[in-house]
Structure formats: structure tokens, C-alpha cells
Amino acid sequence: xxxxxxxxxxxxxxxxxxxxxxxxxxxxxxxxxxxxxxxxxxxxxxxxxxxxxxxxxxxxxxxxxxxxxxxxxxxxxxxxxxxxxxxxxxxxxxxxxxxxxxxxxxxxxxxxxxxxxxxxxxxxxxxxxxxxxxxxxxxxxxxxxxxxxxxxxxxxxxxxxxxxxxxxxxxxxxxxxxxxxxxxxxxxxxxxxxxxxxxxxxxxxxxxxxxxxxxxxxxxxxxxxxxxxxxxxxxxxxxxxxxxxxxxxxxxxxxxxxxxxxxxxxxxxxxxxxxxxxxxxxxxxxxxxxxxxxxxxxxxxxxxxxxxxxxxxxxxxxxxxxxxxxxxxxxxxxxxxxxxxxxxxxxxxxxxxxxxxxxxxxxxxxxxxxxxxxxxxxxxxxxxxxxxxxxxxxxxxxxxxxxxxxxxxxxxxxxxxxxxxxxxxxxxxxxxxxxxxxxxxxxxxxxxxxxxxxxxxxxxxxxxxxxxxxxxxxxxxxxxxxxxxxxxxxxxxxxxxxxxxxxxxxxxxxxxxxxxxxxxxxxxxxxxxxxxxxxxxxxxxxxxxxxxxxxxxxxxxxxxxxxxxxxxxxxxxxxxxxxxxxxxxxxxxxxxxxxxxxxxxxxxxxxxxxxxxxxxxxxxxxxxxxxxxxxxxxxxxxxxxxxxxxxxxxxxxxxxxxxxxxxxxxxxxxxxxxxxxxxxxxxxxxxxxxxxxxxxxxxxxxxxxxxxxxxxxxxxxxxxxxxxxxxxxxxxxxxxxxxxxxxxxxxxxxxxxxxxxxxxxxxxxxxxxxxxxxxxxxxxxxxxxxxxxxxxxxxxxxxxxxxxxxxxxxxxxxxxxxxxxxxxxxxxxxxxxxxxxxxxxxxxxxxxxxxxxxxxxxxxxxxxxxxxxxxxxxxxxxxxxx
Amino acid sequence: xxxxxxxxxxxxxxxxxxxxxxxxxxxxxxxxxxxxxxxxxxxxxxxxxxxxxxxxxxxxxxxxxxxxxxxxxxxxxxxxxxxxxxxxxxxxxxxxxxxxxxxxxxxxxxxxxxxxxxxxxxxxxxxxxxxxxxxxxxxxxxxxxxxxxxxxxxxxxxxxxxxxxxxxxxxxxxxxxxxxxxxxxxxxxxxxxxxxxxxxxxxxxxxxxxxxxxxxxxxxxxxxxxxxxxxxxxxxxxxxxxxxxxxxxxxxxxxxxxxxxxxxxxxxxxxxxxxxxxxxxxxxxxxxxxxxxxxxxxxxxxxxxxxxxxxxxxxxxxxxxxxxxxxxxxxxxxxxxxxxxxxxxxxxxxxxxxxxxxxxxxxxxxxxxxxxxxxxxxxxxxxxxxxxxxxxxxxxxxxxxxxxxxxxxxxxxxxxxxxxxxxxxxxxxxxxxxxxxxxxxxxxxxxxxxxxxxxxxxxxxxxxxxxxxxxxxxxxxxxxxxxxxxxxxxxxxxxxxxxxxxxxxxxxxxxxxxxxxxxxxxxxxxxxxxxxxxxxxxxxxxxxxxxxxxxxxxxxxxxxxxxxxxxxxxxxxxxxxxxxxxxxxxxxxxxxxxxxxxxxxxxxxxxxxxxxxxxxxxxxxxxxxxxxxxxxxxxxxxxxxxxxxxxxxxxxxxxxxxxxxxxxxxxxxxxxxxxxxxxxxxxxxxxxxxxxxxxxxxxxxxxxxxxxxxxxxxxxxxxxxxxxxxxxxxxxxxxxxxxxxxxxxxxxxxxxxxxxxxxxxxxxxxxxxxxxxxxxxxxxxxxxxxxxxxxxxxxxxxxxxxxxxxxxxxxxxxxxxxxxxxxxxxxxxxxxxxxxxxxxxxxxxxxxxxxxxxxxxxxxxxxxxxxxxxxxxxxxxxxxxx
Lengths: 882, 882
Hints:
The structure is a homodimer.
Chain A: E1 8-10, H1 19-34, E2 42-45, H2 47-55, H3 62-79, E3 82-83, E4 89-90, E5 92-98, E6 108-112, H4 118-126, H5 129-146, H6 152-166, H7 176-194, H8 202-216, H9 220-228, E7 237-243, E8 254-259, E9 271-276, H10 280-285, E10 291-292, H11 296-299, H12 301-318, E11 322-329, E12 332-340, H13 345-358, H14 363-369, H15 372-379, E13 382-383, E14 391-394, E15 396-399, E16 402-408, H16 411-419, E17 424-428, H17 436-441, E18 444-447, H18 455-463, E19 467-469, E20 475-477, E21 482-485, E22 488-491, E23 495-499, E24 504-507, E25 512-513, H19 519-531, E26 535-539, H20 543-551, E27 557-561, H21 572-580, H22 584-609, E28 613-617, H23 630-643, H24 646-662, H25 674-679, H26 681-702, E29 707-712, H27 718-739, E30 745-751, H28 754-758, H29 760-763, E31 769-772, H30 774-782, H31 786-792, H32 794-799, H33 813-830, E32 835-838, H34 846-854, E33 859-862, H35 867-880
Parallel strand pairs in A: 3-4, 16-17, 17-18, 18-19, 26-27, 26-33, 27-28, 28-29, 29-30, 30-31, 31-32, 32-33
Antiparallel strand pairs in A: 1-2, 2-7, 5-6, 5-7, 8-9, 8-11, 9-10, 11-12, 13-25, 14-24, 15-19, 16-23, 20-21, 21-22, 23-24
Helix pairs in contact in A: 4-5, 5-7, 6-7, 13-14, 13-15, 13-19, 14-19, 15-35, 19-35, 20-22, 21-22, 22-26, 23-24, 26-27, 34-35
């Protein structure tokens, strides 16, 4: 009529490039048609037609209606079928298909074209009258609901009434006559509710259905969805009109779903299932058990061969593993849909590696195909996705992987039970340095208090053990030796499983999949290394972690936290003596005991890294962290007072005074980090001696020179750095002079306070490296105490989308990231040799790694189990930005 | 000999402009000489000569020596005296005089020119042989010590020995013969120690003295001082050689010190004292009591008249009050020094105001003459500077002013004792909202814990009451009702005085000067208002504070903290019920009780401000601040448990559970501010209702429309602001609609987190004003918890100059200030109407106010007693920057 534009594309005319016009589904069907694959013929009415529909007052313009009619005529000729015919009827499906799939839109109407006449044709053709009338009954119901907006329950109530009346247990017990009766009733419902007769004219059915699809673009649910996801309201949806094919026309017919490769293992072999003489719904309904696709070659060998050929064409065309729906009608194969197949982590890695080896994709593509989280998943034991699980509570996902074992409430007992060969999950309020042996003995840890940075969480992540923390729904009764959660009580010795990746606590022991770093995974990571620009280091505080990280490909240690060395059960008493010392002599005594211990630790770590860079952070936490908890001590002293036990009381009272004296309102912002180093210099001096003694020993005895980087934490002001730098140099130079050794070392600082970022240009004049401590930087920038926020409001903030992403998980680009970028730029402006890295937990998180790449940092550092993740993420960041 | 340069200036040749060459003293003497005032003649050897002295190997070049000789010959002629003469000897003083005065340098040698001959001449001329020989004895001693570097004790021991030998109690008991004997002994000491004979040649004495002055420029103490104060080592010192005059030549001679105005009151009347027939030292030594300068006009009327004239000339010339030393030798007035006189706060204000009125200086100069702190000092009672005080401890200067009273250890008792008309100082560990009545009743507060932002400090500052906080040297024994500090024990009821301006705790009651806002002060502040660009508002949480601030010139309220309204003793129980409520009904009940109370508070505040802008901040602190202390509760519960008191125990255990549940590791970074507002919206809704009800009541009943500004605290993310803005608008619009009132109001946010600064451009799109909460912003930017830092490390940091200034006192320009500036600029870029102010305590601190002016903020807000300070500081910032 008017317009030069083309509003209707047959599948032969379309292609993937026209997706904005044809929508996802239409473009896919066209693409397959274009590849010469057997697709039931059809047309797509474009998204522009949808817009036109709205422009002309929610009516399909006449010229489009005519266009559809013209195509239909053509189709009838090609198919040798007639729309509405009582012998050989043409039946159609009508489906929506926007560019982005979204909920709320009208999806599918099948078997369009059925009416009182053509239902007879269908019965004849299929030889199954009951099937034909059931199709018709369903069509009226579907059309009534989605096109004519009749409330669904009106139809289903009639169906139920009839079943009760005739004593039918389920739909299949209804006879053809019952169905005919139901069809009459359904027509009456349509008449009463929609105030129109159920349209017998197939063309009218079609136009109304197309208009209904377009109309559903602007229904309330769709609008809300688009608003929420920032999707343009003008995109519009397309409509696909396609010839129906039937898989239930005898034993030369069938239907199935295949994956071009095994979506579970990645094996390059057709995978899937099928049913002969059946429709797609039959597979979904589960009435008959589908057959393995491998047996299809015996049933319909020629069709099978064609299917294999077709799926290979599709995989090659889309360059990815495909998930394909097909129907066979009387020996004729039809493809109804193809899409990129979902897969497990293991399969994703194998498929990407294999396809690159096969030359189907290049290495860059292969690297982009694997999600960084896939790599971590295969490093940890996981709960079998098929397992049925009973989740009884959910805490914080504090350390990934799954663990199952007997519930044990104390570290000592956990150790004993584990020694007897039993698997144990340690369950406690929180863990302390005294519980380390329990954590070590357990398969995993569950705590009811504490957040992602709690002792339990940090220790578990370091050990690669699963942990769920801060699960405050669980109430432990230590006397009764049981915990309750809601109505459930779990006694000590009962088995639970925890999922440290989701925070789930599960009753009983569930099936798991074992961890394995496959050859394909190693290959992918090797490729990643050749692309990435960011160096990947690890956070490791002992030789075991360092060794594990090295195995996972760490190129050095970005953060070695010396305080973790203080936390072992045999060391805490010495540290406490140090803190409580009342004379210089006592203090020196404690330090002298600690020095060889720390030195030994450093020796092990340095040896593992074989000369690679190691950044050692001097003592950071406030000293009261090593002392008993104030409330508990108050309770103890009060008890002693009432009981009048004088000697013990005096001892504890003295301790209490000290603990009260050292107590801080906000320890996070208190007397810690370099502030300790400046005011109590003996501790840092001891640590520096231990570091350099270890390094010189390794150098002289093994000839391995460690690239030492001594890091001063919590600097907010250049003077702090300068004062400590001088002290460190003095101790180091003296030790090196003693053994007459030349050893290059760097002195730098952790940038973890906003003021350090704002004055980075000053600090960089004296510092040789910056390492962003983004955990603390996030805390101070947001004013979020992580421990408090995660328990008190952060969860709800995330749920309500007050903030979009947990800034402790993903680096906050708008605030914290901006500070990191600013500090990096201004630091490098005055010191072009400045080495810059990040050692917060963000260093192992892909989106944050992408930001670090963008900020042009030199390295990221993360826990050992995140190292492979970081290697891949760093490569992806590079590939995506070049 | 060589050089075109002039190295020697007679006082006639010099002037103030030549200060770099002549040093401060030389330039001053020249200036007075140039004004035609009677100055004993002399020369200045320049600072360049000093450098030349070093260049030529620490010797005075010959041509300079000759220059000095030449001038001396001239001087002898002019004075009709002869150097070294036994009848009429010319005597000189030699003094150092650098551009900046500094310690460690050789200062003064008097009576140079005395030798075995000229001492006789001096005896003759003065008619006092004993005086002449004592001068000679002293000259040898002084010259020996400072020029010839003989150790001082060698001389003083000989003097003591002699006194013991002859049975003299003090120097004056020594006869002429004793002195002659001593002179011989001193000469021998010089010979033995310095290995030279004491020089009899006056010219040699002079040259050696000049070289000694130059030599002292590079002594160790002077070098260290210059290093520490960044003073250039090349400045050099000048040397002044001046004719001696004597005030002890009979009753027509004398000496004195005068101020051109009263340095204590500022009164425009000559002030000072004098002695006839005396030398300057006699006034200092205090052997004779000097006379009031007013009686001088009776003693020597002509000289007095000349003195008055001369001092007026000097004051007019220097345009400031002068402190002048003079000597009268035989009826001839000589001026020896003039300098700007030190003065009290009160005098500074009166002098500046008077001088401007007199036309001596203009108003800008007057405003710059008064230090902002002067203005605060006159608002508070101060310890009399003359009083002798015994300081027993020093805490934090938490609220300025001085208070004296009986030590009382509990708020209840303080109230009772005060009701009996006794003055009381409340002494406690810390104060809580329950102690407010005690603070109100007390003259001042002394706490042993807590910092500058502790409850006691904040409340005391608000009330204008002196407070010393965190004085942890004081140990309170509540059972014995006493406190000890070191060896001192103070019992309840004993009197102490506290100085809230210095943190000093003083034994007993000391003399004080009363507070008064003089007419002159009011005038100065009025002028300040006409210059300043910054608006000055106040922080006020109640009608009393608002009224006081209004009286002090506040132009609005920049911060009204609604939580302080919760803290009164009668309100805390309601707030606790609100927090502990277990049903919506209970919660609503508590809120319904609080609403009219808050409404009443707002009414009073709004009424006081008479329509000026009032910024009300919605609830900010974490709710657990209103609950009992955890440790104390643990102690209580433990006691109850041991005693087995079941009913009370159950009650307290329930409370303990709640308190434990709400306890936070870092409340500063916890569940507070807008986070509460979002998750517990009922509280903010109640507050907004109370605010708008109060405003509409005032508007409808009194016709006064308050410029309302509702402030959302602790925003770190735009979404937080938007969510709350919407809620506030809804409540406000509904209330305004009910009374059919148009009322403009603004909704803005407190910018107190680094992330808010970094995302200020986003927040400013929706916010109408920013108010920088620089207290919290300083805490998060530095990572300093103020309470912890001030007790644990900040003090030492400041003492060691790790940081130069307390960032909680003076805004940290390099870090926090940079963030403030960044946020202001980026906020205004997207919203040019954005109103920007500061409401942290920095708002009342002059240096910080200067920064705020520089950042072009719209206003500063500070506590009522700082308002006048801020008005003056704001004017000074403007004047200094234009």
C-alpha cells in the first residue's frame, strides 16, 4: 500500500545479520534456512511492523495483513496443503521473537489453522482422531487465554469438572467424545468472556494472533522488565509464522534434542535423546522415557546420518557447541531451533581447548569462551548438580568448594575424630588462632558469626578448604552438643554438607564431583599467560600456600601477611607475652623467641618461590587482636570476683586492665599498621631482621636470590613511610654487610587509605612500589566496616539494589577504582619506575581484574586457588581491550 | 680595599627597608634614628659582612676592620669621648641582629671598651667606683665566656670562693677591693683557659667581639634551629655596635619600659614603669620597685613630655602599639629599642578597634590585627595569666574556658551539690546521655576516657562549658570517692580548676578573668561581616544553643543533630523501647511518643532562627549508642547468674542478647546514617513529620517561614540519596498539603565519606546542597578513628611531627581538603545551584575557614561559641586573598 520498507521476510530472505529486524528466533530460523538446512518454511513479521502496529493505533496495517495473506497463498502452493482444509490442512505456529528475550511476552501458539473443518483433516492425516481433537481443544484454550485474554481458570475448571463427571483420572482418560464436548464448552466460554465467537476463519486466527504478539510487547510485566534492564522500549518484537510439523505421524516420525558435544564432559560426540512417534511435549512431559541419541542410528539410520551432518554444519557455522531441537515427520528431518548449548565448567574448558586445537576457533576465542569461574570450579570439589539436596540454612559463601562430614563443635574433638579417619565439618561461633588445628583436620568450616574476612574465612580460603561463615540462623547449644535451625536439630556426629560457593548448609552427605585440573585446563591457562599483560601473584603466608600457588602458576607473592605467622597456636602465647611485657627485657625476650620462628617461615616461603618476587607486609593488625576477647574476660573476672578466688582473680584482673586499655572503638581505624611500626619499632625491626636473615640464608646456601619487597602497611602520610623506610634500610644494610651480600630489595607501601591515594604523588617520590589493599580501601572509601556491613545491612542493600554489586567482591569502579586509578597515575607521574599492584581479594575477581588491566597496573595478587582464575581473567581483559 | 658594596651602615644611613642587610635590630635602630628620635649613635655591620667573614676563612676582612675603625674615630669626635680613655671613655655595646631572631646565637656584650685605664674614667664620670669596677669585672666575665669561650663555671666558682672567703652573702657585699682582686683572678683565668691575655686594646676587644657574633651564626644550636624551621643558612647575621648610655648617673638619669597603650586592657594611655638613677638590669633584677610611668611626669616633666611625643611618633610610624625601652642619661632621653607590644586578647581587640576609629589604620588592617582566637578567649572565662597554678595532669582540651569547683564523681550528686549553690566540676570516666543533668549543673567536666568527639566533649562544647577529656593519668576510685594522679590524691569535695583551652587540671581554685563581649569586639565583628564572603552558621541542637549562636551572629543553623534530642535523660528510655521493640505496634508506640518531643524541639529552634536557614540532619549514630555498654552488661548478667536471681536475670539476658546482636566491630563504619534510614524507614519518617509539623506551625501561627534544609547523613552512593529523597518528599508534601501551605525546602546530603566525594558529580544531580562532615571525612580519609587515635597514637604523632597538625583540629589540605575541593568542583559542574558548606568542627577553626574560603564554599557552620571566631576568620581569609 504505502512504504518502500519490507515488513515481512520469508526464512529464505532473512539472515543472522538482520537480527534487529527479525529478532533472535526469526534470525536463527532464517540463518538455518540460508545454510540449506531443513527448516519448516515460514516468515518473520519484523520489529518495525510492531512499531507500525503501535503507530497506527494498535492495529496491523492493511498492507501487512495482505502481505501475510500473499505469503500464505504461496506457502499453500509450496506445501501442497490448504489453510483450514478438511483433508490436508496447513497448520502454523505463531511465536514472538524479540532481539533480547524477555519475560511477560506472549510466547507461542501452536496448531493455528485448526477449526471445525480442518480438525477432521488433521484426524485423517494422523490417523489419530483423539489426537486431532485434543489439539483443537488445546488450541482453543491457548488462543482463548493468550489472544482473547480469557482467564485461564475458566477453561481448566471446565476440564476438571468434566473429568470428575466422567471419572477420568487424567486427560488421557478422556475419549474423543469427551473432547468434542469440551470443545463446545470452550467455545461457549470464549463467547461469554471475550464476547466474540471463536474464529473459524484461519486467516482471522492468524492476524489476531500476530496482533496479540505485538500487543504483548507493551504489557506491564514487559515494560517493568525493560525499565529494570535499561532496554529500549522502541526495539519492538518480531513475530514468526511457521509451518507445523508433526513427529507423531508413525514410526518414521519422531522428535529429539541433541547437543553437538557432551555438555557435561565436553566430549566431542553427539549427545542427546529422542522419541519415535512423538511430539516435543512428550519428552518434556516425561510420560515415555526418551532414548539415547546413539541408538537413533539403528532406528532411522538415514535420518541419523543427516542429523549428524546437519549438527556439524551448525557447530561449524556458529563456531560453538549447539543445542538443537529437531522433529522427523514421515522420514523428513526438520530443525526447529538451534542455540549455543549450556555446559558445565569442565565441559566449557574442554570444548574451548578442543575447538582451538581443531582449528574451529582461534586461541583468543577459546580464552573468551571459558568463564574465569569455570576454572575455579574445577579446582574445588563441587556438589553434584544432579544431587537432590535439603538446604537448611544459608550463610556467607566464605571459601569455595563443598565439604561433607560429621558435625563437630570443637577444634580438639575435630582433630581427634579426624585422626580416626572420619570426615569432619567443624561448626563453631567463630574460629580463633587456637582453633587452627581443628580447621586443618576438618573438611570444611561452618561458623555462625563473622564475615568474609573473619578468621575462619581467611584461614579456610588460604587452605583451600570450603567454609560457610556468619550463618546466624544456626543456634549452637554447646552443652546439649547440637545445633538448631528453625525446626531442625542436628546433633554432634550427624552428617552435613556445606557449599562454600553458595553459603548453603545441607542436611546429610550429598554426591560430589571431584576436583581435577585437566590437561585442557592447563592448556587454556598456558595460552592465557601468553596473552595477559598483568602479572599474577599470590597471597601466601606459609610454604604450603606458596607451593600450591606456584603449582597454579603464580609469578610471585604479592602479599605475605606476617601476622598470620603469629596466629598459630604455639605462637600466640609468645605474642601475648610480647604485648603484655612490662619491661624492655621481657619484650626483647619475646621478640627473640619470635624471630627464628618468623625467619623459618620466610625461608620456606622464599624457597618455594625460587627467586621470584615476594612482597612481605610488616605487622598490620592492632595488637589486641592477639589478646582474649573483652566481653569474655569480663565474664570470667566477674565470676572469679563472686567466687573470691584471689590469686587467679588478680592475674585475670591485670589482663583485663590491659585488654580494656588496648580496647578500641573502631579497631579498623585504630592503632595498627605503620602506626605500630613507628611507635613500637622493635616489632618491625625483628620482622625485617627475620626477612633478611631468611633471604641471605637462601642466597648464600642455595644461591637463590629472592626479589624482596618489604611493604609498609596503612600509610596515610609520606612522613610515616620515610621514617620506616629509614629504619628498614638500616637493619637490612647491616645484615647484608655482615654476610657481605649484594641483594636488591624494594621498599614500598600498601595503599589502603583514601589519604594515601590523594597524596600518592608525594608518597611515590620515596616508595618503590604501591600495592593497593582494596579490602581496607573499600572499607574506608564507603565507610563500610566489612564485618558489620555484611551482617547488618549490606545483604539487604544488594537485594534491594541500593548498590548493584558487593564492593568487597567486585572493585567499585565509580569510587574505589577511581581512587586506585588516580593514585596510580599521580604516583607514576613522579616515579615512572613505580611498580603498582593490587593485593586485596579483588585481585582474584574477573571484573576487578579487568579494571586493574584498564588502570595499567603491573600485577594482581590473589589467594592460591584464585590464581588460575586471575590468569584467565587477565588474558580476557587484554583480548577484550585490544 | 676591594668591593663596591657597603658593609657598614651608620644608624643615620639605614632604614627598615634594609632589614635583610641590617637584621631586625639594626633596621629598627636605623628607622628610629631616621625618624629623628634620640637613639645612641652606632653602626650596623651587615649580614653580607657575615657571609664574607665565612668566605674568607672565618676572619673579618681587613677593609671591614678599617671601616669600623674609621666610624669609631668619627664617633669619638661626635660624642667628644675617647675609646679607652681614663677620663671620658667611649663605651659600646655589641649585639647580634639577624633577620629572624633565633636561639643559640651570641646576644649582647655591654660596656665594651673598658680596660685598666678606662675603668678609672668610668669611675670618675659616674662617681661610683664600685659600679665601675663591677662593670669591668662583668665585662671580663662576659667577654671571656662568649667571645673567648671560657667555660662559665670557671668565673662563677671564683666569685663564689671569694664571697665565702670574705663572708659576703651576695655580690653587693663585695667592696671595690674585692672586685679589683676578682678582676685579677678573672684575667688569670682568661690567660690560662683561652691562652691569650685579656685584651686591653679596646679596638681589639671590638673586632674580636664582632667576629664572635659572626662565628656564633654557625654554632650547633643555631644550625639545628635553622634546619628545623627551614631557615636559609646563607641569611647571616648583622652586628650592631652602639654607644653605651647610662641611666644611673644621678637623679636626672633613669631607665624604663613603656607601652604606647595598655597591653592588658588596650586603654589608649601610656603604660609602663621606670626607675630613676638606675640601669635596665635593675628593673629586671627587682631590687628596687619600679614606679608607674604616670609619676614620671612629676619627676622629670620635660623628659616625660619628650617621651610621650616620641612614643606617639613611634606608634604612628609603626601603626601599632609599641613596647619601648628607654634610658635617660643626665636629662637626655635615649631610645634603645622599640617593638610591637605583646597584648592580651582583650587589648588586641580594643587596640585594633580604637586605631581604626582613630584613623591610624584602616578596617582591613584592624581585622587582621586581631587573632580569631582572641575573640573566642573573650567569650570564655579564663585563668588569670598572673595566677600561680599547680598543674597536676593534662588531658585533651575538649571545650574551651576555665572552670573551678568541688570535685564530684556522679551526675546526680553534682546536681544536688550545685542546687545548694556550690560550684562543681563533674569528674567521671566518661559521660553518657544519662549524665546530662550533671553536666548542666556543673561548671565544667573532666573525663578520664574519650576524645574530642566523646559525649562529654560534644555536650560541653554545645553548652559552652569548659571540659578536659581523656585525661587518663587520673585514676578514679569510685568506692573511696577520690582520684589519684601520680602521688596526688584528690577527694570528692576538694576543689580543682580545669582549663578547657589547654587540657590542664589544676589543684585548687585559681583566679580567673571574666568573659565579656566588649563594644569594641562587637564593632570588629560587624566590620568582619562586611568583608567576609562565607556565610557563618552554627551547629545547634536546641533552642538555647540556637539563641546563643544567634546572639553571636550566626546566620543560620548548618547542623542540627536530631540524635542529641534523643539523648536527654527523659528520652533515652523511649528510644530504648523503640530499639528493643518486638512488634510493629510497640515500635509505632515509641515513635508516637518521640514525635511530639522532637516537634517541640524543632519549634524552639526554628523560632529562635526567625526564618533563617536551618539544616536538620536525620538520625545518624548507630542505634546501639542508645543502649547500655556491652562489657558492663556482661558483668551485670554474670553477677546475676552466679547469684541466681532468675527474674531480673532473664530480663537482663534478653537485653544482653540484643546488645550483643547489635554490637559492632567498627560502629563508625557500621549500621548508621542513611543506612538506618533505608532499612528502618519509620524513624526518618517520624523525624521528617516532626520537622515539617514544627515548620508549618511556626509559619501558620507566627507567619515565619523557616528556610528548611533536610540533610541525609552518610551517603556513599546516589541510590541511597534518591530512595530517601523520595520518602522525605512524600511525607513533606502530604503534611504541607494538609495545611495548604507553600514552603520551600531543600533536600541535601552530608558529604562525609570519600566515596561521596568521588561520586559527587552523580549525587549533585539530585541533591540541592552538600554539607561536608569533615570530622567523619577526616576519620575515613586518614583511617583514624578519632576516639582511638587521640588516646593511642595521634598525640605522639604530633609530638614527633609525623603529622604537622592535628587533622581533627585543622582541615588537612593535602588529603581531606583535596577531597572537599574535588567534590565541590565536580558537584557544581553538574549543578550550578548547589549550596555547599562545611559543618565539621573545622568550621570554627581559622586555618580551615581560610581553606573553605579558598574552595569557594557558601558557608561554614560551627558551635555557637566559635561563631564570632569564624566571622573574623572568614573576613581575614577574604582580605588576605584579595
